Amino acid sequence: MHNIAIISSSIRPDRKSHRLALYFMKYLNDNFLANANILDLKDYDFPIFSETLKIQKSPSKKLLDFAEKIKKSDAIIVVTPEYNGGYPASLKNAIDVLYEEWRHKPVGIVTVSGGPFAGTQVLVSFQFSLWKMKAWTITEQYCVPDVEKNYDEEGNSLHKKISEPLTEAFLKELFWCIKADKSVG
What we know:
One of its GO terms (cellular component) is cytosol. It comes from Lacihabitans soyangensis. Pfam families: FMN_red. This is NADPH-dependent oxidoreductase. InterPro entries: Flavoprotein-like_sf, FMN_Rdtase-like_dom, NAD(P)H-dep_reductase. By secondary structure, the protein is α/β, with parallel strands linked by helices. It has a single domain, classed as 3-Layer(aba) Sandwich (Rossmann fold), CATH 3.40.50. The protein has 7 helices and 5 strands, in the order βαβααβαβαβαα. It has helices at about 20-30, 40-45, 60-70, 90-95, 120-130, 145-150, 160-185; strands at about 1-10, 35-40, 75-80, 105-110, 135-145. A 5-stranded parallel beta sheet has the order 2-1-3-4-5, sandwiched between helices. The chain is globular and about 50 Å long. The chain starts with a strand and ends with a helix.
């Protein structure tokens, strides 16, 4: 079974994007598709990025734990809200502190907004940052508009007839990339 890390990137007190991290963890685990765990950046509470992990003299235990979980994962799902057309500083910080851990790692992007645009404006800038880190972003995206109307606080979809086909297509692409990555590696 694949190991998938789900990064919940918002650290705001009243964050809504975390609902999607919970949704994907439950979906993957409940359907026995993968061993999925959430890497909650709110819990990690990293200091502002100053140097990559590779050259830090005494990295924190939390940072070493995060890096190890990214490295050991077969793929990553990143759940990000859109903040003013971009992604949260907490996510940029967590991406930039690592380098080798991202190399050729399949990454699925889930964007969220409280309004009708589903976080789609964040896709280009976030995908570009991942490409520069040599991560392999999958072609399927999972974009959620009006998050509060579509997922509850426990990560349950309020419209399964809509969410499940989208989830299946997203995960099919992610699993295909995992398989392709393993056949090359």
